[in-house]
Design goal:
It is built from 5 helices and 9 strands. With 174 residues, it is an alpha/beta fold. Its EC number is 2.4.2.7.
Length: 174
Amino acid sequence: MKKLEEYVVSIPDFPEEGIIFRDVTSVLQDAEGLQLAVNTMQELVKDLDYDVVAGPESRGFIFGTPIAYNNKKPFVLIRKAGKLPRETVSVSYDLEYGSAVIEMHKDSIQPGQKVLIVDDLIATGGTTEAMVKLVESLGGEVVGIVVLMELAGLKGREKLAGYRLDSAICYQGK
């Protein structure tokens, strides 16, 4: 049986020289790779007590929904601004070049609910930190964050000190 890392295609010098791009689509397009990814992430958080799974578009949806389904939990969408039809709460955050806004429906998290955040990747941690703020703004408690891949060289884990963060694959570089 292949290891999870073997399903990830690494592309050197993309999007710029010196960067190694870790392509999640190679995991998704292989049935065994996808199953291994979801099972591995789910196994990492099997000891957590949570009420709700939340994930950002689009790859957080891909990995978060089966984890929620398998554990009989609801799944909450975190989307880019302007994509949700009902009343929302939002958080803006900085990107490498500019800023972005994410939002959730105002009624998606109830005060006191324990939330597991699921995504495909943590790099600098800016998006993940924004998701934590969003959940907490609704009174939720982030009890864990699980990602498929962590780019440790970008130090995203440091932004999330005090929160449990599990990664299925950890790449030491950027």
